[in-house]
């Protein structure tokens, strides 16, 4: 059986985690490498690092971070943020990243998906999509959901797949931060449209939300941040609950 | 010491990192004289099998690889290169194994690539899986698979179809998944290879 994946997401800036982290046995809560290692030990299936570093100097720190994670952590990880051209992706690949995630850069320059897939393979290219429901229609949003585009989410995701995306990370901005559960109807609908893996994001508040998203939308993976960072959901317990519900987990 | 065949197909950072974690020494094999320095050999590889085969041909290492008596482990595309043929690029390969590498598309209705952690059933006689529990999950990322074979399959994976997660023949071994990304059990598999 292919297991459903549980993916903690870490926001990093200048090589440090930015959102608060509340782990009992963590020596340095701001150290993404230690946090990543902890998650891998707990049974996380994969990790996503979202780099919000703005400066050029800071990007060098990000490269060092990627190298450190690749050296110390024995599960796959994705890095997103600040990837605008092939060169950015190549540096990350050579530093040990398993996948890169592109969001607004792909919307601005759609050819980037084709170029990345052709150069590094589809398995390396995650297209992240932020969506919001506006007057009956799902629209792609940029800049963390603040900027609406005229692009329909369903069409954009299908286009990303046809251009060579290996995976879609879909965040519902309507659900993100609410802790009321994932947007299962939308995720289920999108999942039926595509033939590449779909990662659900936005809305996780408790263990049952993970059960629901897998059972109701059949996505391949579910991603969350704060519920893991604050210890509100422990991955070993979450896996046990999913297993009890008949969901294949590692 | 493990020699890693350095023929330019994909990045080997993750593999060397894993070998560092399990404290196994390694070096790069760039030309045929280098093989003598190592007691076993890993052929890594990601990306397109046809393109990888072209690079391996250009490296001038093929003849030596085929003559090796020491343990050889192909990983992912490095494993596929050991078969006779791949549908990816309609490519003739090394033919260590009389097996074919086939595309999932049109054979399974599941999503392609096969990406994520899948459980694996190892044959009792496959030394790569020593001290690894039954039905352990390993990390896979691939669109092409090696057909299942009662003689050469060392471990079976099911993804809509049974196929070879691991193959073995004499001193040649291959794994379709990425042991370097498969947690502690993946590291155990690499340790096992150093003891074959």
UniProtKB/TrEMBL annotation, chain A:
<dbReference type="Pfam" id="PF00977">
    <property type="entry name" value="His_biosynth"/>
</dbReference>
<dbReference type="InterPro" id="IPR050064">
    <property type="entry name" value="IGPS_HisA/HisF"/>
</dbReference>
<keyword id="KW-0028">Amino-acid biosynthesis</keyword>
<keyword id="KW-0963">Cytoplasm</keyword>
<feature type="active site">
    <location>
        <position position="11"/>
    </location>
</feature>
<dbReference type="GO" id="GO:0005737">
    <property type="term" value="C:cytoplasm"/>
</dbReference>
<dbReference type="GO" id="GO:0000107">
    <property type="term" value="F:imidazoleglycerol-phosphate synthase activity"/>
</dbReference>
<feature type="active site">
    <location>
        <position position="130"/>
    </location>
</feature>
<keyword id="KW-0456">Lyase</keyword>
<comment type="subunit">
    <text>Heterodimer of HisH and HisF.</text>
</comment>
<keyword id="KW-0368">Histidine biosynthesis</keyword>
<comment type="pathway">
    <text>Amino-acid biosynthesis; L-histidine biosynthesis; L-histidine from 5-phospho-alpha-D-ribose 1-diphosphate: step 5/9.</text>
</comment>
<protein>
    <recommendedName>
        <fullName>Imidazole glycerol phosphate synthase subunit HisF</fullName>
        <ecNumber>4.3.2.10</ecNumber>
    </recommendedName>
</protein>
<comment type="function">
    <text>IGPS catalyzes the conversion of PRFAR and glutamine to IGP, AICAR and glutamate. The HisF subunit catalyzes the cyclization activity that produces IGP and AICAR from PRFAR using the ammonia provided by the HisH subunit.</text>
</comment>
<dbReference type="InterPro" id="IPR004651">
    <property type="entry name" value="HisF"/>
</dbReference>
<comment type="similarity">
    <text>Belongs to the HisA/HisF family.</text>
</comment>
<dbReference type="GO" id="GO:0000105">
    <property type="term" value="P:L-histidine biosynthetic process"/>
</dbReference>
<dbReference type="InterPro" id="IPR011060">
    <property type="entry name" value="RibuloseP-bd_barrel"/>
</dbReference>
<dbReference type="GO" id="GO:0016829">
    <property type="term" value="F:lyase activity"/>
</dbReference>
<dbReference type="InterPro" id="IPR006062">
    <property type="entry name" value="His_biosynth"/>
</dbReference>
<dbReference type="InterPro" id="IPR013785">
    <property type="entry name" value="Aldolase_TIM"/>
</dbReference>
From TrEMBL, chain B:
<dbReference type="Pfam" id="PF00117">
    <property type="entry name" value="GATase"/>
</dbReference>
<comment type="pathway">
    <text>Amino-acid biosynthesis; L-histidine biosynthesis; L-histidine from 5-phospho-alpha-D-ribose 1-diphosphate: step 5/9.</text>
</comment>
<dbReference type="InterPro" id="IPR029062">
    <property type="entry name" value="Class_I_gatase-like"/>
</dbReference>
<keyword id="KW-0315">Glutamine amidotransferase</keyword>
<dbReference type="InterPro" id="IPR010139">
    <property type="entry name" value="Imidazole-glycPsynth_HisH"/>
</dbReference>
<dbReference type="GO" id="GO:0000107">
    <property type="term" value="F:imidazoleglycerol-phosphate synthase activity"/>
</dbReference>
<keyword id="KW-0368">Histidine biosynthesis</keyword>
<protein>
    <recommendedName>
        <fullName>Imidazole glycerol phosphate synthase subunit HisH</fullName>
        <ecNumber>4.3.2.10</ecNumber>
        <ecNumber>3.5.1.2</ecNumber>
    </recommendedName>
</protein>
<dbReference type="InterPro" id="IPR017926">
    <property type="entry name" value="GATASE"/>
</dbReference>
<keyword id="KW-0963">Cytoplasm</keyword>
<comment type="subunit">
    <text>Heterodimer of HisH and HisF.</text>
</comment>
<feature type="active site" description="Nucleophile">
    <location>
        <position position="76"/>
    </location>
</feature>
<feature type="active site">
    <location>
        <position position="180"/>
    </location>
</feature>
<comment type="function">
    <text>IGPS catalyzes the conversion of PRFAR and glutamine to IGP, AICAR and glutamate. The HisH subunit catalyzes the hydrolysis of glutamine to glutamate and ammonia as part of the synthesis of IGP and AICAR. The resulting ammonia molecule is channeled to the active site of HisF.</text>
</comment>
<dbReference type="GO" id="GO:0000105">
    <property type="term" value="P:L-histidine biosynthetic process"/>
</dbReference>
<keyword id="KW-0456">Lyase</keyword>
<keyword id="KW-0808">Transferase</keyword>
<keyword id="KW-0028">Amino-acid biosynthesis</keyword>
<feature type="domain" description="Glutamine amidotransferase">
    <location>
        <begin position="5"/>
        <end position="193"/>
    </location>
</feature>
<dbReference type="GO" id="GO:0005737">
    <property type="term" value="C:cytoplasm"/>
</dbReference>
<dbReference type="GO" id="GO:0016829">
    <property type="term" value="F:lyase activity"/>
</dbReference>
<dbReference type="GO" id="GO:0004359">
    <property type="term" value="F:glutaminase activity"/>
</dbReference>
């Amino acid at each position: 059986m292919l297991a459903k994946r549980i993916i903690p997401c870490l926001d990093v800036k200048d090589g440090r985690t930015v959102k608060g982290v509340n782990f009992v046995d963590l020596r340095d809560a701001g150290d993404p490498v230690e946090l990543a290692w902890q998650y891998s030990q707990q049974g996380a299936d994969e990790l996503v690092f979202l780099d919000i570093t703005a400066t050029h100097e800071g990007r060098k720190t990000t490269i060092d971070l990627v190298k450190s994670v690749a050296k110390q952590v024995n599960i796959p990880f994705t890095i997103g943020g600040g990837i605008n051209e092939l060169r950015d992706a190549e540096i990350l690949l050579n530093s040990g990243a398993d996948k890169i995630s592109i969001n607004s850069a792909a919307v601005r320059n759609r050819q980037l998906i084709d170029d990345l897939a052709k150069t590094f393979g589809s398995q390396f290219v995650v297209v992240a999509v932020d969506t919001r429901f506006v007057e009956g229609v799902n629209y792609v949003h940029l800049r963390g959901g603040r900027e609406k585009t005229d692009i329909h989410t369903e069409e954009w995701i299908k286009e990303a797949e046809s251009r060579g995306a290996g995976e879609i990370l879909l965040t519902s901005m309507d659900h993100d931060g609410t802790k009321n559960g994932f947007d299962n109807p939308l995720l289920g609908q999108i999942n039926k449209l595509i033939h590449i893996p779909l990662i659900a994001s936005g809305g996780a508040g408790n263990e049952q939300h993970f059960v629901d998203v897998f059972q109701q939308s059949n996505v391949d993976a579910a991603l969350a941040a704060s519920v893991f960072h604050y210890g509100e959901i422990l991955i070993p317990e979450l896996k046990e609950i999913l297993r009890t519900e008949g969901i294949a987990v590692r | 010491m493990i020699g890693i065949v350095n023929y330019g197909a994909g990045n080997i950072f993750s593999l060397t990192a894993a070998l560092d974690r399990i404290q196994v020494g390694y070096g790069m094999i760039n030309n045929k004289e280098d093989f003598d320095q190592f007691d076993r050999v890993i052929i890594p590889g990601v990306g397109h099998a046809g393109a990888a085969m072209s690079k391996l041909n250009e490296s001038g290492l093929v003849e030596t690889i085929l003559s090796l008596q020491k343990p050889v482990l192909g990983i992912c595309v490095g494993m596929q290169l050991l078969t006779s043929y791949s549908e990816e690029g309609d490519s003739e390969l090394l033919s260590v194994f009389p097996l074919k590498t086939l595309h999932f598309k049109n054979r399974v209705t599941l999503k392609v690539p096969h990406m994520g952690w899948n459980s694996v059933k190892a044959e009792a006689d496959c030394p790569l899986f020593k001290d690894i529990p039954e039905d352990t999950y390993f990390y896979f990322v691939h669109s092409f698979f090696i057909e299942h074979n009662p003689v050469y399959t060392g471990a079976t994976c099911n993804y809509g179809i049974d196929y070879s997660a691991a193959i073995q023949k004499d001193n040649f071994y291959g794994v379709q998944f990425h042991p370097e990304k498969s947690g502690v059990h993946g590291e155990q598999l690499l340790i096992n290879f150093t003891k074959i």
